[in-house]
Amino acid sequence: MSAESHSLYFQNGEGFLSASINMGLPEGQTLQLDTMTVELFLDLHSQPCRAVYLFAKKANIPFEYKKVDLASGEQYGEEFGQISMVRKVPVLKDGDFILTESIAILMYLAEKFSTPDHWYPAEPQKRARVNEYLSWQHKAIRESGSKIFWFRAMVPLLTGAPVDQERMDSAVEDLTSSLTIFEEKFLQKRSFILGQDISLADLVAIVELMQPVGTGLDVFEGRPLLGEWRDRVKKELGESLFDEAHHVIMNAHTLPQELEDKGMLEFLKPRLKKLFN
């Protein structure tokens, strides 16, 4: 991993300060961080990583941001393998405690740092509604949205052939169906999934919907209810933070060249062929 420099976010009473830390300390010296600071291993190309990053910053959680460059294959390196045998991001490290899976990480952060109740409510039925969405979305919006991202942005370059139109149409149809369920069941006419307040459910939803948008497919077009919800989420998070987290995915057209520059294209081709054949 890129261990020479990381970003540390910590509370200063009013919000967060961000600093680049030189990790090349003299032998025998260690960097002393607040015991409440957690390490988050992330790459913001990843939807789950963006959810964790947005939550940690918006909820004033002190954390050290350690970038894992997926385009360089750092997740397959020995150093990251010692942290997580799963070799996926995000990963949370809290002292000797290591946690994978974004939903588990979000819940852990909410409980450990006693974040405002609206994020992950203590009231059983409200919490159940958040859990309901989080349990549903990964085989619905996430699955079809991720397929569309790979079909539109990556697969033609990596395989040397266009994606079969029938498969593309099927993925778009699946996403369209999921968006309808999202609007009619989970959102309805409320401001957010739980009502007047944003929650982890909204956070996980927005990062997934922005993934196909990064390839030029505007999933909000023709869906005013969905578009208005997106605008409220963006305003609640803060436009600057929202845009910061989504900058890399909104420039997804540069990812193939980045992979080529880093020598990862040939490495990924057989993996993708196996995945999408």
Automatic annotation (TrEMBL):
GO terms for cellular component: cytoplasm. Its main location: cytoplasm. Residues 36-117 form the GST N-terminal domain. Its EC number is 2.5.1.18. It holds the Pfam family GST_N. The keyword Transport does not apply. One of its GO terms (biological process) is glutathione metabolic process. One of its GO terms (molecular function) is glutathione transferase activity. Residues 123-276 form the GST C-terminal domain. It is found in: Cytoplasm. It catalyses: RX + glutathione = an S-substituted glutathione + a halide anion + H(+). Homodimer. Belongs to the GST superfamily. Theta family. This is glutathione transferase.
